[in-house]
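TODO from last week: model LON peptidase N-terminal domain and ring finger 3.
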Amino acid sequence: MGFKAHFRKAQALATLGKVEEALREFLYCVSLDGKNKRARSEAQRLLLSFFSPSVPGESQEHFPDILKLLAPHPRLKEHVESMATEGTSHNLPKLPQESRELPHCSSQEEAAAAGDRSSPENPVKVEGEGQEGNGKGQAGDQEEKGDAASAKAGKCQEKKRKRCQFGPQDPEVPTKARKPDPPADQGARAAVSAPLPSFDASDLECSLCMRLFYEPVTTPCGHTFCLKCLERCLDHNAKCPLCKDGLSQCLASRKYSKNVIMEELIAKFLPEEFKERRRLYEEEMEELSNLNKNVPIFVCTMAYPTVPCPLHIFEPCYRLMIRRCIETGTRQFGMCLGDPVKGRFAEYGCILEIRNVQFFADGRSVVDSVGKRRFRVLHQGQRDGYNTADIEYIEDQKVQGEDQAELMGLHNCVYEQASSWFHSLKTSLKNRILNHFGPMPEKDADPQVSPNGPAWCWWTLAVLPLESRAQLPFLAMRSLKDRLNGIRRVLAFISRNQN
């Protein structure tokens, strides 16, 4: 990292109250650019908090910690040791030659400080001293001027000490309103708890969505984005959106480095903006979790209740759709056949529930899903590239009395017919069906228990050699009797062809 990166990191650490780590970063900035006044002033302020004379013996207590902290940096360690050694007479660290200009005085104060050389403690030889007549008068005038300059120099030194106590960042703090100095450790906490002067909400905006960071993550290449924004970019290209560095390892593991410092900064200094950002996110998640309006629709193949439906996901829009289904907690989406004549997809479909997802390094995934409920499409729509629909769920109509007895006889007859057909298949074909769909479900004691009808009916329809267009009417039927009669006719037709 360069000077700017270390300086930003030091400011963030100081704001969070991590004084020792912030001091190390500021001193590293000084070693990189010794003429930078901001870095030197920040380093001086934190050093003063360690070597403050308000608590006796505290400099000796903190000095070994600082040396231990800077052990990996010999150059900085020698720098701090020399500063502390030179300043032991006043219990304060003296600054190097370049930084003596940091505690600024006015031009008049600097001029007065020059008169300090003529004070009684530092006498100088006055021109004309020891001469007779007018020479003595000139020497007397010069001594009076020296006394006045000495008084002014004392005032300037007093102002310098007061300014150093407040630090170079606070030159406008009034002296009269200043309270008694707190202990050094409390003073350090108060100093770093104040917000940075240059802190602004626009500095904490994601470069992808141009909104305040939410769940910020940092890539291995050092760039920070919202988690959801980065994932959407990786759906299209497995590279960093800014520097184009490869991020395939993030796609394979689905693990990202959470930026804790960024989250703490936002929560501490932008509480209202963070609250609003979180509210918008929760509203979006609530809208996505609605399984009646704007339900995500996967336009691909036929799906039936209780029947497994494995899917290979590789298109960016469906990657986003599957991820959102998992994030909202519903883990459900609709499956429909494509229908370019009547609309983008068919009028009837089945809700699938995600049981497991396996991700690959190139962004692809294999989704293990199973059918849950049937639905009818009321209105078609789109969202972020994938299809959506407003739907209503459909169920079988129950019958009573004689119709129920007739239904039971038909149910038992068709089940035996379907079982015989399956066992008559070749062994290789049966094994392929078993590996993909599992074994044939058992016959139900009451075929009307489930609102979707017996599970073996849907399993039989899934394994029958029918085109998708021929299977779709069975999904739309609300009469179990009609569905059983249809399956019986298909089985009879297939058996005749086999014979």
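Done. The longest strand covers residues 365-383.
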